[in-house]
Design goal:
Outer membrane phospholipase (ompla), Chain C; mainly beta; 12-stranded antiparallel barrel
């Protein structure tokens, strides 16, 4: 009786030891992906309209992630740039992003899904932005604006890569406008320059605006059908001091369609609202604008292209 118990129990105990051993092995994972998306519209004697156009979007992502029994550390760099050319119209920028994100979490118990977490994020653009067709006056430049978020809190997720909720009661948000003309104009919420009656600058505008507030994020990734992956990323931020009831929203919803190992199709919706970023409206005087209230911005993208994993 003892012999039969030992015979059958031994493989199970070895399996448990082996399983525990695998769980505590620290592991770094590195991944990078380059993507190229193209779209074209060509018309010949098309009776309902004929504006030929071509669009291109290039993106690069790099991930370096660490995980062990109690700690995870996720790092990501994204660079993306898009252009569009339509017949009889100047070349226009459609997308521009450079972003660095680092997220670290620690859980005191192995069987817990709650992590003490800290998060860093910085994003800006790489090239000048314009309010087309005006290409003489840039409305945005490199690190004008640039946004930095840094804070700590709690993060929940049984599988952090697929579903997570992050809550930070203390997050620093810094807005950088390092271009002098934009800073003097008070673009993107910084304090504008003080000018005399003739319009001469007495005191330069601030190039940095700092806020401290509360940040709540949710990320979700799931396969809704074979070769179709849905992704959701929601970020809500509110400043404690200035208009706490006004919430900054950054919400992305995307669908990735896998055709084969290289060909992909992507559908993405991106909604943004920042109470500090005011819009402009035309006045009765030609070429002059007045500041208006903040408004939501929405962008959608549909493209078919190629992915190469490294």
């Amino acid at each position: 009786m003892f012999f039969s118990y030992a015979l059958f129990a031994q493989p199970e105990s070895l399996f448990i030891k082996e399983k525990v051993k695998k769980e505590i092995i620290p592991e770094w994972k590195y991944a990078s992906k380059a993507s190229l998306y193209l779209s074209e519209a060509t018309f010949v004697n098309w009776n309902s309209g004929d504006i030929n156009s071509i669009s291109v979007l290039i993106s690069y992502k790099y991930n370096a992630n660490y995980k062990d029994k109690y700690v995870f550390w996720k790092n990501r760099v994204i660079a993306r740039y898009g252009l569009n050319k339509q017949q009889k119209r100047e070349l226009r920028k459609t997308d521009d992003l450079f972003e660095i994100t680092s997220n670290v979490g620690f859980k005191p118990k192995n069987n817990s899904n709650w992590f003490y977490s800290a998060r860093f994020n910085f994003k800006t653009q790489m090239a000048n932005g314009y309010k087309y067709p005006n290409k003489d006056d840039a409305i945005s430049r490199l690190i004008a604006p640039g946004y930095l978020f840094f804070g700590g809190g709690m993060q929940y997720g049984k599988d952090i890569d697929k579903l997570s909720f992050y809550f930070s009661p203390l997050t620093l948000k810094a807005t950088f406008v390092l271009e002098e003309d934009l800073a003097n104009a008070g673009a993107f919420g910084v304090t504008p320059a003080i000018k005399d009656i003739d319009g001469s600058v007495i005191t330069q505008g601030d190039k940095v605006r700092c806020e401290v507030g509360i940040l709540l994020t949710n990320s979700c990734e799931m396969e809704i059908a074979e070769n179709i992956v849905a992704k959701n990323l929601l970020s809500l931020y509110s400043d404690y001091v200035n208009n706490f009831e006004n919430i900054d929203v950054d919400w992305k919803i995307g669908f990735d369609f896998k055709v084969n190992s290289f060909v992909r199709a992507t559908l993405e919706s991106h909604l943004k609202y920042d109470d500090d970023v005011k819009t402009q409206q035309e006045t009765d005087v030609a070429g002059e604008f007045d500041k208006a209230g903040a408004r939501e911005g929405w962008k959608k993208f549909l493209g078919i292209g190629f992915d190469v994993d490294f």
